Amino acid sequence: MGKEGFLSPKAIGNRIKAKGLQKLRWYCQMCQKQCRDENGFKCHCMSESHQRQLLLASEDPNKIMDNFSQEFKNDFIELIRRRFGTKRVQNNIVYNEYINDREHVHMNSTQWETLTEFTKWLGKEGFCKVDETPKGWYIQYIDRDPETIRRQEELEKKKKQDLDDQERSAKFIEEQVRRGQGGREPEVREYHYYFKIEGTKSINSSPNQIVVSLPSGSGKRKDAPSTSEAKEKKKKSALDEIMEMEEQKKRSVRADHWLHPGIVIKVVTKRLGEKYHKKKGVVKEVQDKYTAVVKMIDSGDKLKLDQSHLETVIPAPGKRVLVLNGVYRDTEALLDSIDERKFSATLTLDSGRMKGRRVDGIAYEDFSKMA
After folding, report:
1. What residues are paired with 265 via a beta bridge?
2. Which residue, among 296, 294, 297, has the nearest Cα to 286 in the 3D structure?
């Protein structure tokens, strides 16, 4: 028989076995070599390369362990931050996803003997919030990224500014009401009602009369609306117009977030590799206004991405789009034409009170194709 080659059944079987995770007891962390059985691990321990690695580790064993511990900690925290964000999750779930990588650092080569000990250490050092429940230990990542902290501060400033704008608008409306009334207090009118009291006797045998004074607007009898009241109604309608203008001004303020469920987006970051770069997906969920859960159209994979790593998708004319920013935010529309020189488009609104209105000069980043 000829010599077994690369495509022989035995060689193919060996490669299939080597792909999956093997037993931890037959793994050498120093050499980063996985053996398939006890005999292979014994032969590896007797090899010259393994003996050389042991001599190097014996010179400074604490340094070697610290390096493995640091690498394990960094990879574990990066997985929590990228995969789960600031959600509360069980530590076993994170660890099971971590060990799916065949090249991961094993815990038995670190300073922590158990996952519970490592979880407690994360809480003590302030990397995560940890709590123990009858179902086990849960961890929650604490995001200390300067960019995230800066974004939160900007949101707080924006909220404070919105409150100040509302106070100024309220004062402006009160001033308009006061001017409409001419700076006078509401009038109090007196109405005289005459009632005949039966069953009583008077000396002059004439019906007794009682005068009752009531403020304007009360009582069972109502007068016909006067000209002053008609003017007041007109002033109220003008006041309503002012309030509508204020609401429109509030909506016209541009927001720093534009993500919306149901829109088509394109991944522009290269950190995820060429598999997802410049690929399109659909936003399934929006978290914290700036983060989206995206389902890729080609592969069906679900990714959690920041809006800075995404961009809008401009469809062909005649397709439906959603306005994401500006006065007409959250309004569905039809794409009429595109102005490539000004990087803008002309839309026809297809929902809301302004349905049918044609709007020019909508920037590319302010609308996107609907799924």
Report:
1. 281, 312
2. 294
Distance CA 112, CA 120 (A): 10
Nearest-angstrom CA–CA distance, 97 and 115 = 14
Query: 286 forms bridges with which residues in the sheet?
Result: 292
What whole-number distance in Å separates Cα of residue 104 and Cα of residue 72? Answer: 8
Interatomic CA distance for residues 309 and 58, integer angstroms: 46
Alpha helices in 196-352 (DSSP H): 227-252
Report strand pairing: 88-90 vs 128-133.
unpaired
- The strand pair at 128-133 and 264-267 is best described as unpaired
Q: Per-residue pLDDT tens for 112-147?
A: 889 999 999 999 888 899 999 988 999 998 887 777
**64, 53 Cβ separation under 8 angstroms:** no
Ranking 211-220, 251-260, 263-272 by mean pLDDT, the lowest is: 211-220
The phi and psi torsions of 233 (rounded to 5 degrees) equal -65, -40
Distance CA 353, CA 236 (A): 22
> CA dihedral defined by 67, 70, 72, 73, rounded to 10 degrees?
170
Gap between the Cα atoms of 211 and 336, Å rounded: 72
DSSP state of 299: T
- Contacts of residues 213-220 at CB distance under 8 Å and 24 or more positions apart, as own/partner, are 214/190, 215/188, 215/189, 216/186, 216/187, 216/188, 216/189, 219/191, 219/193
| Coil/strand/helix, residue 292 | strand
pLDDT band for position 219 (cuts 50, 70, 90): very low
Report the C-alpha gap between 69 and 107 in whole angstroms. 8
Q: Which residues are CB-neighbours of 22 under 8 A, at least 6 positions away?
A: 34, 35, 36
Place of tokens 């890729």: 296
344-349/332-339 β-pairing: antiparallel
Give the span between the Cα atoms of 76 and 320, in whole angstroms.
43
Q: Rounded to whole angstroms, how far apart are CA atoms 332 and 241?
A: 25
Kind and range of the H or E run holding 156: helix 146-180
User: Vertex 169, ends 166 and 174: CA angle to 5°?
Assistant: 125
pLDDT digits (tens, 9 = 90+) for 8-19: 877 776 666 656
User: Whole-model pTM above 0.70?
Assistant: no
